[in-house]
Amino acid sequence: MKEFLFLLLVVTEASSRLNSSGCELACECQRSLKFTICSKALFTQLPDRVPPATELLDLSDNRISVIPERSFSKNRKLRVLLLQNNNISVVEDGGFSQLEFLHKLDLSWNRISTLTEGFSIGLAFLQELQLAHNRLTSLDSRSFLHLDSLQRLNLTGNNIHTVQVRSFSPMSKLRQLHLEDNQLTSLRSGIFSMLRSLEVLNLAGNQINETETGVFKPLASMTFLNLANNQLSTIYFKTFLDINDYSTHILLEGNPWNCDCDLQRVFLKLRSIQRLFLDDYYNLTCKAPPVLEDYRLMDVDTELCLAETVTVLIITVTVVITVLATVLMGERQRKKRKIGKHWTQQGDFSDESDY
Questions:
Q1: Radius of gyration of the chain (CA)
Q2: What's 285's DSSP letter?
Q3: Cβ atoms within 10 Å, residue 75
Q4: Cis peptide bond prior to 289, omega within 30° of 0
């Protein structure tokens, strides 16, 4: 019993020293590792007492709702800041402005609906930004204005339906862009301008039914493009021909393809380009025409195009024959009129000789 009380006294004293020397109650401060763990501490606002030497601060799974301006002025050495699974709806301008060494910021699973120009002030060296599962609806040229060094951006599971031209242009070093499970309906030329370092572009699970020619042209380093589970019924050869990387893998499964012969020709050309890999081509299924619904695209291509080709040939031959027949009949009528006119003139000469 005495040993237990002594041990309890030692632990209590150590905890008291820890907290009295700059660690917030309910947090765990690993000074030698420069970690401060405050996860699931029921905080409704940012803690005041975080050791200045902390490089990783975990504030996940709390109830924090606001990030005030200059919130981390006492923790300038932070390299990793985890704020996922809170109730954050407001990030005041300059909220992260003191974090010049920050490399990773996780704000996923919060309630952020807008990104102001001041959101990214001070984050010039940030390399990874997690904004998945928030309430964003649109992006513009001010959303990521100061993120010059960003390499990974995750916007999965928001409600983004509008991306203005040059929204991502400040991030010339970006290598991964995740936009899956949003509400995008079209991809306009210019929205990916300046992203020459982008390697991964994930657009799965949107409502995309249109891609403008040239939209992927700026992406000179893209190795993976995911367009699965959208609303594409057809695609254009030049849209993917503009992808200039030496090896790009493309996913297109789960779209409602209109399996006409034009679509087959496009896929035939795409599959002949050695630098493009249609990884799920054998899983593509038809939505239209109704007679081919749920058929695999690869199973109907030969018969479909052959039937269409024969039909076109028959129509072409029929038109040619009709035109030739019309020309011949016209020529025959012209000759008849010429002969008739000749004999009429001969008859007039004969009548004159009788006198």
A1: 35
A2: B
A3: 21
A4: yes
**Residue 84 is part of which domain span?**
25-177
> What is d(CA 187, CA 28) in angstroms, rounded to the nearest whole number?
46
Contacts of 164 (CB under 8 A, 6+ apart): 138, 139, 140, 141, 191
Contact by Cβ (8 Å): 294, 264: no
pLDDT digits (tens, 9 = 90+) for 52-101: 999 999 999 999 999 999 999 999 999 999 999 999 999 999 999 999 99
**Cα distance between residue 183 and residue 161, in whole Å:** 5
Sign of the four-CA dihedral 242, 247, 251, 257:
positive
Work out whether the CA dihedral 310, 315, 320, 326 comes out positive or negative: positive
Strand partners, 338: none
pLDDT beyond 50 at 306: yes
Tens of pLDDT, residue by residue over 196-234, are: 999 999 999 999 999 998 999 999 999 999 999 999 999
Are 186 and 212 within 8 A, CB to CB?
A: yes
Encode burial over 253-278: b for 16+ CB neighbours within 10 A, e otherwise. Answer: bbbebebbbebbebbeebeeeeebbb
Residues 29 and 173 in one domain: yes
CA distance linking residue 211 with residue 192, whole number of Å:
12
Distance CA 129, CA 118 (A): 15
Q: Are residues 69 and 199 in the same domain?
A: no
Going by DSSP bridges, is the β-strand pair 35-37/28-30 parallel, antiparallel, or unpaired? antiparallel
Same domain, 142 and 261: no
Same domain, 190 and 150: no
Domain count, the chain: 2
Q: Which two tokens stand for residue 61?
A: 């799974």
Tell me if 151 is assigned to some domain: yes
Residue tagged 């709806």 (tokens): 89
**51 closest CA partner among 26, 28, 85, 83:** 28
Rounded to 5°, angle at Cα 166 from 162 and 172: 125
